[in-house]
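Hi P.,

Sorry for the delay on this. The queue was packed all week, but I finally got your sequence through. Input first:
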Amino acid sequence: VRPGNPIVVVARATEPFTSKSEYSFNRFDFAPYRLNSKEYAFGIRWCHVLEVHAGPAAGNYYGWEFLDLFRARGSSIDRVLTTPMHFYATDGDEEHEAALSVSKKSTDGVRDLIKTAGKAKPAVFRWDGRAFVTKDADPFLSLQSEDDRAEMYQE
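Then the structure:
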């Protein structure tokens, strides 16, 4: 912003955007999530890190990165997807990453999203009128151990 050039608000969230206090902002995700011929989405990446305090893994860290995807439509911004995208362990024995791409297929005028991770079966997220949902198993979660999945959603 240059002096004398005002900031113009072109859209506002319909409700305040908050995250859990133990999550920290990581980065914006400006991949070209083209939802249809007139609309795009953008992302915010959040991290959640846990330190192991006891047992043989004491002193190690486990981290997860989540993607919150937002749709700007008219003068509003709405969160339309939250999904885990990256996992790592500082002991070096485990790291997984997922990718999200835009499909050529659409549901109700909004392009489907495809999430892939490793060799697991991809998940297709379809528009339900308010957000992206899937009936498929999350390919990213299939790469992690049951204990890691439980810790990821720990309060």
